[in-house]
Amino acid sequence: MSGNKLNRRGLLKSGAVLGAGLAMPTIFTSSARAFTNEPTGSNVVLGFNVPQTGAYADEGADQLRAYQLAVEHLNGEGDGGMLNTFTSKVLDGTGILGKRVDYVTGDTQTKSDAARASAQSMIQKDGAVMISGGSSSGVAIAVQGLCQEAGVIFMAGLTHSNDTTGKDRKRNGFRHFFNTEMSGRSMAPILEANYGTDRKAYHLTADYTWGWSQEGSMKTYTEAMGWETVAAVRTPLGATDYSQYLTPVLNSGADVLILNHYGRDMVNSLTQAVQFGMRGREVNGKPLEIVVPLYSELMAQGAGENVRGIFGSANWDWKLQDDGTKAFVKSFGEKYGTPPSQAAHTGYVQALLYADAVQRAGSFNPCAVVEALEGYEFDGLGDGPTLYRAEDHQCIKQCLVVRGKENPTDQYDLLEIVEIVPAERAGYPVDHPDFQGGDLGACNPGA
Amino acid sequence: MDAILLQIVNGLDKGSAYAMIALGLTLIFGTLGVVNFAHGALFMVGAFCAVVMDRILRLSTVSVDPTRTDFLGNPLKVETPYVQTWFGDFGATLINYSVPLSILLAIPVMIVVGLAMERGLIKHFYKRPHADQILVTFGLAIVMQEIIKAIFGANPIPQPAPDALRGALDIGLWLGFEANQVIYPIWRFVYFIFAVVLIGGVILLLNYTTFGMVVRAGMADRETVGLLGIDIDKRFTAMFGLAAIVTGLAGVMYAPIVSPDYHMGMDFLVLCFVVVVVGGMGSIPGAVAAGFVLGILQSFSAMNEVKAIIPGIDQIIIYLVAVVILLTRPRGLMGRKGVME
C-alpha cells in the first residue's frame, strides 16, 4: 500500500507537474503576445507600403524595387549592396536574427485613408512586424500614427514635412529622409551667394502639410538673409493649370519665384512658369529666378529642360562618390537598368537600418528596436556620418543642394550636385520652435 | 489695368480647352442624348497621340560611343533617330514640330477610338436611363486611363512646343503698356487661335452644309427626319466621331501646356460638365460661350486682390456661377427648351 501513499516527494512532483500544466497556456499566451506579430517561424514579414497607383505610382515602383533589393541583400542574395559599406557589421546575409526575410506590399494610392487601410491589412492579415514607405507627408504621418497604435515599427520613406518628426512624431516611428528645415538651412547660403540679399520672393505653395512646412522654412531662411516675402499663395494639390496663379507674379514686383510644389504639381507649375518667360525675365534690374526647394529625379524628367539652372535640395543623389552610394547604384543599376532615385535610396536604407537594429537588439520587440535605433550613429549608407537622434527620431545627416544641369548627357543626368551640406550645418537643435508641440510618447510593443 | 488684361488673356487658353471639350460633349448629348463621362478620356487620348508621335519620330538606331560612359561606367549607348539619319536637318525639324504633326495621327486615332467607343459600348445604352449611361461611361473612362498608365506610366511626359513657338509675347507693348507688364506664352496664343478655327469649323459644318443641316434637323426632331428616309443614326454616329476628333485635337495641342499624364482627362471632365450645364444642355453656342466665360472668371478669381476679399474663391467660382445660373436660368445660358428639364 506504500506505493499509493502520498509522500512529500510525490506531492512536490505532482504539484510541479500540475503547476506546469496549469501554467502552460499562460506561458504560450504570454509568449505569443509578447509584442505584435512576433515572428515564430523561420520567416519574418516586412510590409512595404508605397503608392502603386495614382500620380506617384512610378516613384512608388522605384521605392519598391529598392525594398526588394534590400530584402535580397538581407537574405544573402545578390552582391550585398550597402551591406558591404555599412559601418555596422552585424548583418551577414542570413536574414534577420536567422529568419529569412519575406515581404508584403500595400498600395497607399497617396491617400491617407487608403494607406492606413493597406498598412492595417499588412499588420493584421500578413503579420508584418515593420511597415516602411510613403511618398507624401500626409500619408506618412497617418501611417506612423497607425503603427504606433498597432505596436509595430514604422520606418518612414519619402516624407519631407517637419511635422513627421515634429508635432506628429511617434516613439515607434523613424525618419531617415531630410525635412523642410534642413532644406531651408542648406539652401540659404547658396541662394544668398548666387542671388544676393536684396530680393523679393513670391511663394506658390501646395496646400497641404508638406507645402505649408516647406513654405515656412523657406520664408524663415530667406527673410533672415534679407529677402522680402511679397506674397505666399496656396494652390490646390493636384492642380494642372497654374497660369492663373503665375500671372499675378508678373505684376507683383517679385524677382524670385519659389515653387513649394512636389511631383506632378512641380512639373506643371515649373513648366508653365518657364513658358510665361519668367526665368531670366528682368525685374527690379535683376533676372527673375525660380527656386524648387525639393527636387525629385523622376519629376525632373517630367519637367525636362525646364529644370536647367534651377536650384533645389535633395536628400541624396546617385552621382555621389562615396563607397556606399557607389555600391548601391551598382547593385540597383545592374538589376534594374536605371540609377536609383532618392525615394529608392531612403527606402533601401530604412530597411537595412531596421534589420540592423533588430540584429543588434537581439529581438524583434519594437521597444528593443526603438532602443537600438535611438541615438544610433552609423556611416556607409550614402549620407556620410549620420545620427538617428533619440529625442525626435530624425536622422541628422548631410543633405544636398542641387541644380538642374545645363547640358545633361542622358535622361538620368538631370541634376548636378552644387554642395554637399554636412550634418553639422544641415542639422538643427532638437528644441527648434518649428518642431515643438509633439511628444514621442512611450514605445508600444502592441499586445 | 495690366493685371486685369493679363487675367483676361490668361483665361482665353483655359477657356479654349473648356470650350472645345464642352463642344464635343454637347455634340454627343445633342445628337445621341448620351451623357458621356468618358469624354475627358478622349482629351487624354488626344494628348497621348502627341506622346506617341514624338516616340515614333524618335525611333532610333543605337550605337556605342566608347569615349563616354553611362552611370554604371559602361560605354554610353547613343541613340540617333531614323528621321534624322534619313533626312538630316529636316528630320530634326520634324521632331521639333512633333506636337503640331501629331494632329495627323490624332485624327484617325480619334475616329477609331470614338467609333469603337460608340459602336462597341455606348450604343447599347441609348435607351437606358442617364444614370446608367453615366456609370458605364465613367467606368470606361477609368479603364482607358488605366490602359494609358499601364503603357506610359504615371509620370507626366513633357511634350515641348516647337522652338519657334516656345517664348512669350509681350502683348502689353502692343497696347501701350510698359515692357514685361503683359506677357503671354506664344503657344497658349497658338492654342487659342487653334480653338477658334476648330470651333468655327464645326459651327460652319453644322450650319452651312447639307450634312450639318440634317444633323441639326435630327437633333430637333429625330423621328420626322427618320420618316423622310434619312439614316439619321449613321449621321449621329459620325457626329460622335467628330466630337472625338474635336476633343482629341484639343488634347494634342494642350500637351505642351500641361505635360500629358493618365489623369488629365479626369481633371477636365467635371469642369467641362459644369461648362455644358452653364451654357445650356444641347446648346453648341452656349457651350462655347460658357467655356470662355468660365475660363476667364476662373483666372480673375485667382487674383490676389480677389482672394483677399473672398479666400478660396478660385476653387469654387465655377460651381458658384453654375448654382447662380441654374437658379436664375434653369436651362442654362442658351439651353434648348425641353432638354434635361
TrEMBL record, chain A:
Top-rank taxon, per record: Bacteria
Keywords associated with the record: Amino-acid transport, Signal, Transport
GO biological process: one example: amino acid transport
All residue ranges annotated as the Leucine-binding protein domain in the record: 45-405
Record-linked SUPFAM superfamilies: Periplasmic binding protein-like I
UniProt record similarity statement: Belongs to the leucine-binding protein family.
Record protein name field: Substrate-binding protein
Species this protein is from: Halovulum dunhuangense
Automatic annotation (TrEMBL), chain B:
GO cellular component annotations of the record: plasma membrane
Protein's UniProt keywords contain Cell membrane: yes
Cell membrane in keyword set: yes
Superkingdom of the source species: Bacteria
Example of a GO biological process term: amino acid transport
Residue ranges of the TM segments: 21-53, 94-117, 189-215, 235-256, 268-296, 308-327
GO molecular function: transmembrane transporter activity
Membrane-protein topology: Multi-pass membrane protein
Localisation: Cell membrane
InterPro entries to which the protein is assigned, alphabetical: ABC_transp_permease, BCAA_transport_permease
CDD domains reported for this sequence: TM_PBP1_LivH_like
Keywords: Amino-acid transport, Cell membrane, Membrane, Transmembrane, Transmembrane helix, Transport
Family: Belongs to the binding-protein-dependent transport system permease family. LivHM subfamily.
Protein name in UniProt: Branched-chain amino acid ABC transporter permease
